[in-house]
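Please describe the entry underneath.
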Amino acid sequence: MSKKVDYKKDYKQLYMPKTLPEIVEVPRMPFFMISGSGDPNGEEFAKATEALYSLSYAVRMSYKSDDVPAGNYEYTVFPLEGLWDLLDRSKPATDKSNFKYTIMIRQPDFLTEKGFDRFLEQTKRKKPNSYLEKVRFEQASDGLSCQMMHIGSFDDEPESFARMEAFCTEHGFIRSSKIHREIYLSDPRKTEPAKLKTVLRFPVNKH
């Protein structure tokens, strides 16, 4: 347990970018994830988020258990992330009921499939939540991407995306998908909208 990992320091490039667009290469990482659709302000999204956090904290606290996972180390639980798309591309992006998403929380590299099964059963007993049934343990990689830190309301994100796309055009990159990733570094329930910090990222190709 000598090692302690804090994503804000140890993975600064991926989680604490500047408020200017940049190009990064994002590696494969293990995640707990749940897919769904509809307005993220609704109950379904809240229950899914709760399921991901309760399971992630079970893994985080496993060093105190009778059966400590091999290679275990202390770390800060990673922030919630979301991959966003639209159910119907002909509708405006402002229609939140038209959102399609996969929300996820990155996991430490010592977690195995067997460990996932064990912590899932444990969490179902301790913190029952029907959305635990929907959790998947998978690897994901964004690869070559454009990202920046967005400070402010979620509704103002289009301005940051426009800056990112202009940056890509200027530097010889092209956005390769309408899907984008958001990493939530602030709790919207406790932070005023103007101060919310969200990492925005989308995949790119060299033009």
In short: The chain has five helices and eleven strands. The mean pLDDT is 94. The longest strand covers residues 197-206. The first helix runs from residue 7 to 10.
